[in-house]
Design goal:
alpha+beta, two-stranded antiparallel sheet, 3 helices, 2 strands
Length: 105
């Protein structure tokens, strides 16, 4: 089968090829011996989170403590964002006192 690559490096896979490998959203892409090899990958997001937790050396008690802390009503936010004040308050500009009109030139 023939497929054409677009100017934006996009490639449309033939329907028969997609049906043969089954419904998948992601492919591992590899160049091997002058060929492009696509391997269907099923991403398990939950598995990625569990792998990260293991890599950080966190245990069940650590996760439970973090969850309990995050659900506490009085827990401070981790990131404070400035509150935008778009025209809700009048801004005043302080300037030097004006001289009387008679002394101005």
């Amino acid at each position: 089968m023939l497929a054409k690559i677009t100017a934006k490096n996009q490639l449309t896979l033939p329907k028969s090829v997609v049906q043969a490998v089954g419904a998948t959203e992601y492919f591992d892409v590899e160049a091997r011996g002058g060929q492009i090899v696509l391997t269907p990958v099923r991403i398990q997001r939950g598995d990625a989170v569990r792998a990260k937790i293991v890599a950080l050396g966190l245990g069940e008690a650590d996760v439970a403590d973090a969850t309990r802390w995050a659900r506490t009503a009085g827990a401070p936010p981790r990131v404070m964002e400035p509150v935008a004040d778009y025209g809700t308050a009048r801004r005043t500009r302080k300037s030097a006192p004006r001289k009387p009109a008679a002394s101005r030139k």
